[in-house]
Amino acid sequence: MGVATEMQQDHKGSSEGSAAAEKKRWTLNDFDIGKPLGRGKFGHVYLAREKRSNHIVALKVLFKSQLKQSQVEHQLRREVEIQSHLRHPNILRLYGYFYDQKRVYLILEYAAKGELYKELQKCKYFSERRAATYIASLARALIYCHGKHVIHRDIKPENLLVGAQGELKIADFGWSVHTFNRRRTMCGTLDYLPPEMVESVEHDANVDIWSLGVLCYEFLYGMPPFEAKEHSDTYKRIVQVDLKFPAKPIVSSAAKDLISQMLVRDSSQRLPLHKLLEHPWIVQNAEPSGVYRS
Ligand code: AMP
């Protein structure tokens, strides 16, 4: 039995009396805890091994007091609910969760190569082959999400992890939403937000196409396209779609064409994700395996 089926639990509790409700409840005793992998806003992440299956996971430990103080319990619940139902090679698996009096524990897929953000900082910018491979894999993951009526709404380098083979994993569903309707909530980080979200008008799944365009630009140039010293200036540049391509680093006109087709003010006119996968820049540069090996 694989970890996916093994690592299931049901927190509705046995009070429901059904066989499904009798599924295993995890506790800290089920895991050997290893080295710290990183520190987030609400707690720590540790390498861990599930004792029975020997499966390696990342255990995210969140402090209830901090979640409460920042009023993000609802957001966390939504994140867990959404992420635990998604199964895609480019989406980090959430196998389950448990809690004690003080903490909430998330059992996550371990991304052995860590944060993409650090890799981008180290390289300053990526080659077109690498950027195209990443953008194509994220487009596939977002097509999958949108097919399940899940909008991510917060695609940015800080939310992407890298697996052992070099494959990208969307890791943070904190701002994602399961929806059939158009939304008005303002969320995410300003640099990646599309005009309709900074202006708080209705938005839909096409917000993720915009953010993917911003990400593509950042992969190739090492900085997001609408960056400015002041928030208010970033806001203005987004709303006006003030898109400029610097002379250096040299980037192909095919890549600029793709970015220009994604960063379009009218969300209905943005290049659909399945069309993105057929764009010449993607076809010519993305690794068919979906995995970039440096
Ligand atoms: P977070 O609280 O999600 O921001 O996580 C804090 C840090 O822990 C991240 O920046 C990563 O370096 C590391 N981390 C989180 N989740 C994982 C994971 N699933 N696999 C490997 N490292 C992780």
Uncertain runs are 1-22
Q: Note the overall shape.
A: globular
Number of helices: 11
Number of domains: 2
CATH topology title of the largest domain: Transferase(Phosphotransferase), domain 1
Elements, N to C (H/E):
HEEEHHEEHHEEEEHHHHHH
Largest sheet, in brief, is:
5 strands, antiparallel
GO molecular function: ATP binding; histone H3S10 kinase activity
Keywords: ATP-binding, Cytoplasm, Cytoskeleton, Kinase, Membrane, Nucleotide-binding, Nucleus, Phosphoprotein, Serine/threonine-protein kinase, Transferase
Subcellular location: Cytoplasm, Cytoskeleton, Spindle pole; Nucleus membrane
Family: Belongs to the protein kinase superfamily. Ser/Thr protein kinase family. Aurora subfamily.
Task: Walk me through what this model shows.
Keywords: ATP-binding, Cytoplasm, Cytoskeleton, Kinase, Membrane, Nucleotide-binding, Nucleus, Phosphoprotein, Serine/threonine-protein kinase, Transferase. It catalyses: L-seryl-[protein] + ATP = O-phospho-L-seryl-[protein] + ADP + H(+); L-threonyl-[protein] + ATP = O-phospho-L-threonyl-[protein] + ADP + H(+). Its main location: cytoplasm. The chain is an alpha+beta fold and 294 residues long. The chain has two domains: 27-109, Phosphorylase Kinase, domain 1 (2-Layer Sandwich); 116-285, Transferase(Phosphotransferase) domain 1 (Transferase(Phosphotransferase), domain 1), CATH 1.10.510.10. It contains eleven helices and nine strands. Strand 7 (160-162) and strand 8 (168-170) form a beta hairpin. Helix 5 (128-147) packs antiparallel against helix 7 (207-221). It is globular. Mean pLDDT is 87; it is low at 1-22. Adenosine monophosphate is lined by residues 37-40, 45, 58, 92, 108-111, 114-115, 161.
